Amino acid sequence: MIKIYFTDFFQIEKEVLEKYGCFNISLINDLPLFIDPFLLFGSKNQEYQKLHSDILKYLAFLKEKSEEGNLNTGDISAWYLFPEVKQNWFGYSKFGNGGSGLGPKFASSMSSSMKLIYEDLGSEVVTQTSHLEKATLFEIGVGKDNISDFTTNLIKEFLLNYTEKFALENLNENQVKKVKVNKVYFDYALERWMPKEYTLPFIFDDYVILTPRDLLTKDDNWINGNDLRGDFYQVCSGISNQQLRAEINNFYRKKLPAPTEKKKITNKDRAKAIQATIKQYPEIINWYIKLKEENKEGAKNISKKNVEEIESIFINRIIELVENLVNETKFYDIPPDFSYKASLDRVNFLKQVIENNDGYRLFYINGVPIKREDDLQIIYRLTWFASNYDVNRETNNGRGPVDYAISKGAKDKTLVEFKLASNSKLQQNLENQVEVYEKANNTTSSIKVILYFDSTEYAKITRILNDLKLNDKENIVLIDAGRKISASNVK
């Protein structure tokens, strides 16, 4: 049996997982989902609402300590530094499930900005409450990935309890293990994070954490900087304080360049003026959050849509692709003789299925090509799991990342790089990139795979390959992912 997902490895029915309400994670590679703390706030589930309150309680503790001053590096390390919770198999890791977590830069930014960000914490006037993700709206270097990691750590006790309950009810004794987990809950009397033991699903020398699907989203938190700027005019029009609203509008207009007959005001000009206005009047942020709070259902709907899209691409269609590879090719029968040959054979089998066996459908959502190299790279990783080769995603041996280094021993290493024809730097990459990487990785074997969607992109690739005299290289594989006419419709 080909194994990719939690249900495959732990041999349980998908319906069991669905009934419990958790997402069927891949145990091959992180999937691009994360927990949005707004979904805790916006839920009618009282347990979720308590989790949101618990997050605010911890923020209040951090703010109090920040205001007291005298924070030493030990305090900051103990209260702000957290590893990525890799066991939930979500996030931004493009190989396996290892991410960077919350490091010193995040700790420094947050600890020094608590009063600025959460000035009205516990005494909100404009908004219903405070929100952890508010930190991403200030220019302090805190991003959505930081908020995702922080949220997951702050609700880790809930996630562990949630997973343990499922494991005890649905898994066999040989599928679980009692483990001690660090930094599970915060003891306010001792002012320190405490460990706790759990009986959890266990595989690959590590435990697994399950996550309720109704807490997940992708791309952005519901409260995010892009929407703050995009909704700027709507936000400002909703400010009830007439004097403040007038001052903001006046400041914004002054920040716009004076238009002339030859030069009109551009979107870039407006964006710069908006950013300057928000910096001058940070009160705008609270009015933006108020707007978001009033649309809780919108957050839930976006979350549901995002989760279904990830399921469609990285579960349902991957299963179709794998079944196609099993039934129509020898993709999973290739003997592990030479890394280069195995890699090239597998890439060509992938090409065959995409071009001739409806595999192209994997790359379309609602009729539109996904056209994201990150998606392509995750897809490739999810299809390679059956090999006994070491597949390392985006290795970095000194000269930047390359999509995959597939090796069987130090002397047998092949670099496989996936690119989209739409990549504006494709020619530059073909000229220099892999050749540089080959020197750094001490290998002479490399494969470049280029995905294109239409005749224009194909013409671009062939022109580049002809110009570089690379058009007859077996290790440059072009894959046509354009939509195909079904054989049943061909007359």
TrEMBL record:
Name of this chain's protein: Uncharacterized protein
What organism does this protein naturally occur in? Epilithonimonas hungarica
Q: What is the lineage of its organism?
A: Bacteria, Pseudomonadati, Bacteroidota, Flavobacteriia, Flavobacteriales
